[in-house]
């Protein structure tokens, strides 16, 4: 289980300095992270360790992560902002 301090740290790590990533990741931490199952929370932490250019390509749907854990997390985040 992630503590409030852990979540503050994750929110800080979600600020990537690239607007396209910031508008996806920061609100996700604020609004959805706590409701995720622990496995998905761990996947999100793993996602934050990735390079910005990879994250950008995945979230702009120009590429798909080879790692199924990362692909799942990208889909969860995209589904949240693109319902339907």
UniProtKB/TrEMBL annotation:
<dbReference type="Pfam" id="PF03937">
    <property type="entry name" value="Sdh5"/>
</dbReference>
<dbReference type="InterPro" id="IPR036714">
    <property type="entry name" value="SDH_sf"/>
</dbReference>
<keyword id="KW-0963">Cytoplasm</keyword>
<keyword id="KW-0143">Chaperone</keyword>
<protein>
    <recommendedName>
        <fullName>FAD assembly factor SdhE</fullName>
    </recommendedName>
</protein>
<comment type="similarity">
    <text>Belongs to the SdhE FAD assembly factor family.</text>
</comment>
<dbReference type="InterPro" id="IPR050531">
    <property type="entry name" value="SdhE_FAD_assembly_factor"/>
</dbReference>
<dbReference type="InterPro" id="IPR005631">
    <property type="entry name" value="SDH"/>
</dbReference>
